[in-house]
Amino acid sequence: MRASRALAVTAAAFAAVALAAPIAVANPPGGGGPSNVTVNPYSVHQGSSMQVSAAGCGHGGIVFSHGNFPQTNLSAGSIGFATVRIFNHASPGHHTLSVKCHDNSLVATHRFTILEGNGAQGGLGGSFGPSATETAIGAGLVGAAALGAGAHVIRRRRPLRDRA
To answer: Is the CB of residue 86 less than 8 Å from the CB of residue 118?
Structure first.
């Protein structure tokens, strides 16, 4: 009985592999051309960066848009990624970028918008430490507080003979 079960399981496994083989040959990984192209953000200022991703380029590829940013490499893998920097002089408006895989001649496109002017320069947001002047003022204030606290404790201290 155990042998018949093992034989049935083995036959089912071979049947599953045999049925899946034609599908795998028809859709080779990375060979179907680029698909599912996305951009983030969709609207980008002149001189800013934009993330591009595309599926289907298992061996990598290129991203290009004539006059808007230089040709950029797309990373290899099931989903490839690229960061493109929009030219400072790129014309504002709606544009199209193209993605082409290294192992395929198919090209996929996606639209994006270039906004006029430079985006907000976020600044440093407090990432710099205090200056020497600020440090000296802070140290002086801490020292003055320590002296004041010490004087207060000395004045309030009771002599030992008063304690019973």
So the answer is: no
Pairing relation of β-strands 69-74 and 49-55? unpaired
Strand-pairing partners, residue 162, are none
Q: What is the pLDDT of residues 28-37, one digit of tens each?
A: 444 578 889 9
Closest to 92 (Cα-Cα) out of 43, 137, 149: 43
How far apart CA 133 and CA 6 sit, in angstroms, is 81
Q: What is the DSSP letter of 161?
A: G
Q: Which of 19-33, 39-53, 78-92 has the lowest mean pLDDT?
A: 19-33
Q: What's the token pair of residue 144?
A: 């003055």
Do residues 75 and 61 touch, judged by C-beta distance below 8 A? no
27 phi/psi in degrees, rounded to 5: -125, 75
| Phi/psi of residue 65, nearest 5 degrees | -155, 110
CA pair distance 10, 74, nearest whole angstrom: 42
Determine the Cα–Cα distance for residues 140 and 26; give it in Å rounded to an integer: 76
